[in-house]
Amino acid sequence: MRTLTDLSRPVPRPEPATQADDTPTLPRQAPPHDSATLHVTGRARYLDDQPAPANALHVAVGLSRVAHGRLTRLGLDAARRAPGVVDVITVVDIPGHTDVGPVFPGDPLLADAEVRYAGQPLFAVAATDFTSARRAVALAEIEIDALPARLDPVAAAEAEEWVRPPHVQQRGDWQRALDDAPHRLEAHQFVGGQEHFYLEGQACLALPNEDDGVTVHTSSQHPSEVQKLVAEVLAIPFHAVTVEVRRMGGGFGGKETQAAPWACLAALLARRTGRAVRLRLPRGDDMRATGKRHPFHNRYRLGFDDADVLQGGDITVIGDCGHSPDLSEAIVDRAMFHADNAYSLGQARVTGIPARTHMPSNTAFRGFGGPQGMMIIERAMDDIARHLGEDPLTIRKRNLYRPEHDVTHYGQRVEQIGLLHELVSQLEASSDYWARRSAIRAYNASSPVLKKGLALTPVKFGISFTAKHLNQAGALLHVYTDGSVMINHGGTEMGQGLHTKVGQVVARELGLENAAVRISATRTDKVPNTSPTAASSGADLNGMAARNAAMQIRERLFDFAAEHYRLDREAMCLENGELVAGHGEGERRIAWGDLVQAAYLGRVSLSVTGFYATPLIHYDRASGQGRPFYYYAYGAAVSEVVVDTLSGEHRVSRVDILHDVGDSLNPAIDLGQIEGGFIQGMGWLTSEELKWDETGRLTSDGPATYKIPTIGDTPPDFRVALLEGHPNSQASLYRSKAVGEPPFMLAISVWSALRDALASLADYRLSPALDTPATPERVLFAAQALRQATATETSHA
Amino acid sequence: MIEFYLNGEAQRCASLAPETSVLELLRTVLQRTGTKEGCASGDCGACTVAIGMPDQAGGLRYHSTNACITPAHQLQGCHLVTVEGLARGDALHPVQAAMVDCHASQCGFCTPGIVMSLFTLHEGRREGRRDALAPLDDARLEATLGGNLCRCTGYRPIRDAARRLDRYPDVRPPWADDAALADNVAALSDELESDGYAMPRTLAALHDVRRQRPRARLVAGATDLWLETTQRLEAFEDVIDISRVAELQAIDETPDGWWIGASVAYTRLEPLLETAYPAFARMLQRLGSAQIRNRGTLGGNIANASPIGDTPPVLLALGARLALEGPDGARELPLEAFFLDYKRTALAPGEFIRAIFLPRPAGDRRLEVWKLSKRREDDISAVLGAFAWQEQAGRLHGVRLAFGGMAATPRRAEAAEAALEGQPPDAAAFDAARQALARDFQPLDDVRGSAAYRQLAAANLLERLRLTLTHHSPREVCLDAYAH
């Protein structure tokens, strides 16, 4: 039996990503996305592309325009009489559960008496076409007695308006460490939310079955939860509901819990009418009705010594959870778990407060609170550096987790510290940080308006669901008699290349070409009780389950072959489409297809389920201590920006990234995750601004007003590399590491570089406040504040 | 009845509502679902398709457009190409092959739109078109793809795919084998028989139809009007499409300047502006996206009378005039007299803009145009400043400072102009002008910027102007100039 490590054949590395104006080169032997050809030819089917029976109905949902109030009248007669309308439902038409809260209750499928956010679904209309349904929605007479809306999460936190109780993680005597420290600083910051802006909006198609059941096609990261909620809403057993997800046109967390309500509405209307029902949200409704990345208000009080090394302190993070718990407890927890990022806080207390407001229920989004938590300590690193006149990189390096300072505030020992230091040093050198630092100082000294900034920020991101039970996965593997292999697993494909990676795993274990293995849609009747595809865990968990299935079938075939062909069982392997037994003159090779056919005739089962559960992890909420993460993924980025201090406009001119994916499963896919995550993070921190009016209505409700990055925002000089030679220290899938979320936070380097450029206005002696997103407006006001502070200083001097 | 070709096949569609979009026609009537809806507002590019129109050389000239806000009736006499129409069986089109090889799709939902934007670029290069032949540098790719949002990749692999296009064998779409296609498309009627949607070909015909249908909505590029149906679900009972009125499509040169027909699309203006007013041309690259610039018109941007339209401030600074026509005859009007109040214009009932007069640049006149927006590409201005002046004997003359985003209409800053007129371009004069700006405007708070930001940023644009007038190169004081 070979060991895990032996099996992790080295995968050829890609050349570093392209540099400015160079002709690009391609990573070698990294199979493309398994749907790539379907994508580029328009043949890949998304939810709304699926053919449906000709009599299918289309649904539009009526949303509240009031953030908080009592629903006193819902006049739907005109909507019912409108052309094409077949059915109209409100909360009283729901036979089963009316609450679709995923973990804790609090999410009414349709509003009852109380309206809790602008955008909340009140009723749904099914009509013969989409436009008729939408026009009928507009005919509803809605009367809501408005009540005061709570829109400020800080005020909510002070009033103890929480969706869940606050949580504390504490290690050592933080108060004493703070009191005894020679230097103390404190600051607060606002970190804005983020709209997912998956290109494919929320969508589903529900088909009534011949019995009491329903088959639901949905664009969801969590088919098992959709199955559960649809069954509960319809008051039927889980086995009467089958949920299928072929692919999503983007998810990013926005379809982890918040795809389910639409599936429930469509399923209910399908059961009531006996017809197929399509539901897709127009972009504006999608943006108004669904939750976003949590905005956070963070605060730190930290003490440090004369060498700028943290001694301890106190950090508070307040998450704006919106009106219901959804996943907010775990999200605020993750913000707390990452309030240290890659630095030893010393003796520290971290408090998380999940504040309740009259907003859509904010939800999972790539990083899951981690990015918002990291922002506070990265702000502190810059502030400390300015306070003592050091370069922020020097301070960051000095405070990294290190021997004897390797335990987090929640009690987990940080492994691979050597990797972290090596990664930062390598990037420091390869990005030419110090030479560029000097050049930028010189440029800024003589440039009247444009100022450049530079920053290196690291990432340490914990991998595992912090809800322990979710760290499991299943797979179903069939070998057909022509030798082709079908693998199903519980993970969903949202563009991240999960199916490609899992297919590679099975092909590798069975010694087959990738094309011999196919992955079909994720279905709850193939693999049951699955976890969401989230927490970057898709490949880690489902790849392991698939590998487990493949290893079982391999062992079964080896047993069969040993007996049937009278071969030496010990020396068998599968490679290049053959079973190989024996060595040298005694070697026998049997084609995979022949082996499978013989096994079938020999009445050997060619179907198997696989399973995996992550070992070692635990976390005790009562004490706030444990080992919530199986391992950490690391990375670092250096960003250089140019700021126009008269307009606040800015551009990212160069980015260098070095990222740790352990031994990469697919370098091309991993690079894609790193680059895409970085740009998405950059959008979050710079141009993507959520705006509400004073009554709590979203005003940035479409791409005309909510600006995600475009191709021109991609740095002209973008150098991305995978860290070489550091397999995962834990026994993960071929010693690879998760890659979905960690790179997102590399973009904090852009924000820090903006602060660096601004700091030049005050000769790097002041640390500018810069809430996010750092729009031109915020950057201009920050520049203005620094200029005024400097002028005041000068006049006092 | 609309007659057109779709991926080389003749199509006849009857009884479409006037507000039907190309996207709706494709997805719900023709069941071609390769083209995606991402926003239905012309902002994300997922629905990008290529429309080929007969050109004077007897071929078909393709441009990209957002199918979601392109009226289906505008397909009359065109060749519509969608993502389904590029590959030859298993042989991918170069654009598609490059995208696969570069790992340029992840979730794939934006991919059909990106493929079609790159397809129009590729076709343009095959035909040797001036605008397409420029090197495939970052600026060219941004101009082509700035209106195609991708949420997954971060664009680097898409950029790489675009740069590799020339390396692939020139696999042509199957319909390219049909030598008669361009002739067949050109042979389709240029008359549209359709209830509720008129598409006159001459000014005289436009006057006729306007007289018969006085309540009809006028549409040219539809880049704004169509949002009323996709976002607000309006049903248009009666539409008059002016996009093919020959006189409105003309650019007439006179000794003093150019009369630009009201339905000339922005893209067609580019060559003229690059020569006459490079600062205007540069700003135009940031107006909407390629898809929008291919359809949107100067006439629409003015008639729409939005306070944040990008071209009106420039035209105000340049002293543009309008030629209006209506039931009571024709008249000319300075552009300044056209904007009365928020979305209210001097157009009399039944009147429309025939042409816009762009004065020829005088030797010593200078123009700067600076647009400020949250995102550089495909974003609407928070503030747009357009400044024209000449310097004589060290003093500023003929100062015209026009702003968008600062008031209910695009407007000149008269007090600030007065503060600069006849003054040397020194700090004192510009201080006075910046202070005067606070008297000129009381801007609004909205989603694109606070009143305080607009006021400060507008004043700072005057400071930028001062710096450019006094020994600083634009590269030193303006980020856009630095970066390009």
From TrEMBL, chain A:
Every Aldehyde oxidase/xanthine dehydrogenase a/b hammerhead domain range: 41-148
Names of required cofactors: Mo-molybdopterin cytosine dinucleotide; FAD; [2Fe-2S] cluster; Mo-molybdopterin
Which NCBIfam families does its entry note? xanthine_xdhB
Annotated region (Disordered), positions in chain: 1-35
What family does the database annotate? Belongs to the xanthine dehydrogenase family.
InterPro entries registered for this protein in UniProt: Ald_Oxase/Xan_DH_a/b, Ald_Oxase/Xan_DH_a/b_sf, Ald_Oxase/xanthine_DH-like, AldOxase/xan_DH_MoCoBD1, AldOxase/xan_DH_MoCoBD2, AldOxase/xan_DH_Mopterin-bd_sf, Xanthine_DH_Mopterin-bd_su
Coiled-coil boundaries: none
For this protein, the Enzyme Commission number is 1.17.1.4, 1.17.3.2
Q: What is this protein called?
A: Xanthine oxidase / xanthine dehydrogenase, molybdenum binding subunit apoprotein
Mind telling me which Gene3D superfamilies this protein's record contains?
A: Aldehyde oxidase/xanthine dehydrogenase, a/b hammerhead, Aldehyde oxidase/xanthine dehydrogenase, molybdopterin binding domain
Q: What is the lineage of its organism?
A: Bacteria, Pseudomonadati, Pseudomonadota, Gammaproteobacteria, Oceanospirillales
Keyword list, A-Z: 2Fe-2S, Iron, Iron-sulfur, Metal-binding, Molybdenum, Oxidoreductase
Please report a single Pfam family linked to this protein.
Ald_Xan_dh_C
Q: Does the keyword Metal-binding apply?
A: yes
Q: Could you state a single Gene Ontology molecular function term? A: xanthine oxidase activity
Automatic annotation (TrEMBL), chain B:
Q: Which SUPFAM superfamilies match?
A: 2Fe-2S ferredoxin-like, CO dehydrogenase flavoprotein C-terminal domain-like, CO dehydrogenase ISP C-domain like, FAD-binding/transporter-associated domain-like
Designated name of the protein: Molybdopterin dehydrogenase, FAD-binding protein
Question: Which keywords annotate this record?
Answer: FAD, Flavoprotein, Iron, Metal-binding, Oxidoreductase
Annotated FAD-binding PCMH-type domain residues: 190-363
Q: Name one Pfam family in it.
A: Fer2
Q: Which PROSITE patterns match?
A: 2FE2S_FER_1, 2FE2S_FER_2, FAD_PCMH
Question: Can you name the source organism?
Answer: Chromohalobacter israelensis (strain ATCC BAA-138 / DSM 3043 / CIP 106854 / NCIMB 13768 / 1H11)
Q: Where is the 2Fe-2S ferredoxin-type domain?
A: 1-86
Listed GO MF terms = 2 iron, 2 sulfur cluster binding; FAD binding; iron ion binding; xanthine dehydrogenase activity
InterPro entries for the chain = 2Fe-2S-bd, 2Fe-2S-bd_dom_sf, 2Fe-2S_ferredoxin-like_sf, 2Fe-2S_ferredoxin-type, 2Fe2S_fd_BS, Ald_Oxase/xanthine_DH-like, Beta-grasp_dom_sf, CO_DH_flav_C
